[in-house]
Amino acid sequence: CSWGRRVSNPMATAVRSEYAQRLGSREAKGEESVEMHVITLDEKSEGATRTALFVSGLCCSAETSLVERLLTGLPGVSRVDVSVATKTVHVRHDAKRTNENQLVTILNQAGLGARVQSEASTAAKPASHGWPKWNIALATVLFVTSLFSFLYPPLQFLALGAILFSAPSLLVRAYASLRRCELDIQCLILLACFGAVAIESFVEGAAVVVLFCLSEWVEDRATQQAREAMAQVVALRPESARLAKSQKVIPVEDVKVGMMLEVASGEKVPVDATVVSGSALINASILTGESLPRRVEANSSVSAGTINMDGHLVVRAERSAATSTVGKLVDLVNEAQANKSPTERTIERFARWYTPVVVLTAVLLATIPWMVHPHDTEHNLQYTRNALVLLVIACPCALLVSTPITYVCALATGAKNGVVVKGTPYVDALSKAKLFVFDKTGTLTEGSFMVTAFACIDAERRRETLEALYEVERCSSHPIARALVLFASEIHRRSEEEDDDNDDDNDNDNDQHSQGERAKAGGSPTGDARARAPGAPRLATGFRVENGRGVSGVVKGERVYVGNTRMMRDLGVLGESTRLAEQRVKDWEADGGTAGWVCLGSSPVAIWCVSDSVRAEARSAVMSLDREGMFVSIMTGDNAGAAHKVASEVGVPGSRVYAQLAPNEKVSTA
User: Fold this and answer.
1) What are the helix (H) ranges across 147-241?
2) Can you tell me the distance from the alpha carbon of 134 to that of 350, in angstroms, rounded to the nearest whole number?
3) C-alpha span between 598 and 413 (Å, rounded)
4) How confident is the model at residue 401 (pLDDT cuts 50, 70, 90)?
5) What pLDDT does 332 receive?
6) CB of 397 within 8 A of CB of 60?
C-alpha cells in the first residue's frame, strides 16, 4: 500500500558553522557605567583587566607603533592590541597599577583623541559623520577661495588662514611622534606644508594640509562600515535576563550558573542553558546562519543569543554571560583582529623603513642642487618643489589603511553570518586555495526538503510507522528530518479533519472523495494514516545518529531505524520480500531524489523520498570559482543520483562528485 504526499517546508536551509576552539577557559565579569567598560580576563588574577579604548586619532597602521610605545612601558600593562580599521585599542593591564583613566590621559597627551569605550556604545550604531568638523570645513572654504588668486592675487593669503585652521591637530600628533624619534604621515604632511610656505607657495601648502584632513574624514566614513559590522556582532549579546521565581529582570552579567531563568516568546536566551520546562521553536540563525528553527523541550540545550519564537521556557543557566556561545563569538572576533596576517606585518615593516627613506630622499633632492649650483635660484626652487611633491605623493597612508579595513570587514561580516575566522592569516590563506569542496544539503541546495513520495511496505502497521517516524525524527535537527516530521504531522492533521467531518456531518460524499483521493495516490481506501498528535510531549529514547547512514531511537520499547539503503544493508534486514521496495528506492534516487527507509526492529515497514532545490546563487558561485581556475568538488552523504543531479545543475563535473560519504570519510577523501 502506498500513497504520495507533497508537504511544503516553508523554512530555509540549515548552515553549519564551526567555532574556533579557544585556548583555555575564561571567566569574565562586566562592570558597566556611562564612562567605561572593563572586562576581567582572569578571576584568579586580581586586577587583571582588559579595557577597550576608542582612539579617533588612529589614522593608519603607521601610528600603531606610537600607541604601543606609549602604553607598553606602563606599569602593569601586559598586552596592547591595536585595530586601525575600527579605531580601537584593547589593553590588558593591572588596574591597581595603571587604571583606564591613566591610559586615556597618556594617549590624549599625544593628541590621539582617546576615550574608554563602553559596551553600550560599541553595540550602538556608530554616529554617521555627515560633515567634517567646523574648522576643517572653514579651512576648505578658505582654500577653495584662494584657488582664485590668479584672478585677484591677494586671495592667496586666505590659504594661510586655511593652514591655521587645519594644521593644529596635525602638529600635536607630529610632535608626539618626533619626541619618540619617529616620523609618521603627519610629519611628512607638515614638512611639505611648511616648505611650501617658506617658498611663498601658500596655496600649495594649504592644499597639502586641507586635502589630508579631508582624506582623514573620508577615511573615517569608510572605516565606519567596519565599526558598524563589529557593533552588530556585539549586539548579538542579550542585555538582560528574567528570574523565573521573582520575575525580576537583572543584567545578563549578573546571571550565575544554576540560576533558573524565564524566556518568553520573542525574547533572546540570555546565557547557555538547559531547558527545565516548556517547549518552543528556537531560532539560532544569528549564531549559526541556520534559518530552520528547531524544537526544544525539557533537557534540551539552548545557546545564548538564540530567539524563542513561539513558546514559554524555564531554563537553568549552565554558563556565565562571558563564557556563553555568543560571548565567545564576540571575543573571538575581537581577538582575530589582533591576529595580524603576514601581509599586514610586511606592510608595517615596510612603512617603518619607507617613511625615513622618503624624508631623506626629499632632503637630498632639496639640498644637493643648491650645493652644486648655488646661484641658479629658479632651477633650485624647482627641485625644492619636487622634494615637497615627493613627500606628499610618497605617503603610504592609503596602503596602510586599506589593508586592515579589508580584513576587519571580512572577519566581522563572517561573524554576522555565523562563520568565525580565527584571524587574518586564515583570510590570507584563502588566496592560496586551489580546491573548494562543497557539501550538498544546505550548502549548494536550499536544504528546504519536501516529501515527494511515501510508501508503506506493511499496510497493517501504517499508523505505528508514522508515529515511530515522527517521534524519532523529532530528535534530529537535519533538514530531511524536519521534512519527515512535517509530513507525519500533516497526515495526522488531515486524518483528524476527515474524522471530524465524518463524525459531525456524516457526509458520505466527502468520505468517498477522501478515499478516492488516497486510492488515486496508490493507497488503500479502507485505512487511516494517523500519526500520534504532534503536540504530544513524548520523544524517542536512546536516540543515536548513525554517521552517513541515518538515525535511530527507541519507541515503545522497540528500536526504530530511519536511514538510507546502506543502513538497511548493515542491519541485514533486506531480502526477497523487499526487492520491489529496493527497486523503487533506486528509481527515486536515479531521478535525483533522496530516498530512505523506516525499519521497526528488524522489519522494514516503509520507504520515503524527499527532494531539495538548488540555491539560486549556487551555479554562479561555482562558475565564478571555475573562472578563477579553482577546482570545485562535491562531497555528500547523500546517494549518487541526488549528488550528480545537483552537480549537473551547478556545473560541477561528475568526476568530482563523491557520494555516500560519512563525515570522517569526507575528511580522508579531501
Assistant:
1) 158-166, 168-179, 185-198, 202-234
2) 35
3) 42
4) low
5) 62
6) yes
